[in-house]
Amino acid sequence: MARPVDLPGLVSDIAVSPDSGRVFVALTDKGEVATFPANDPHAISRFTLKQP
What we know:
mainly beta; 3-stranded antiparallel beta sheet
């Protein structure tokens, strides 16, 4: 069953299914892109997209 994950700085609420191998992507309030595996929401990676 999916459970909500509270990750500081993320713009949107994300529901994570612990048995899923998918990677979730969200935008942070600083304009960064944050990615993390669904089974470990605390293993978050943040990076900033380069502007053209």
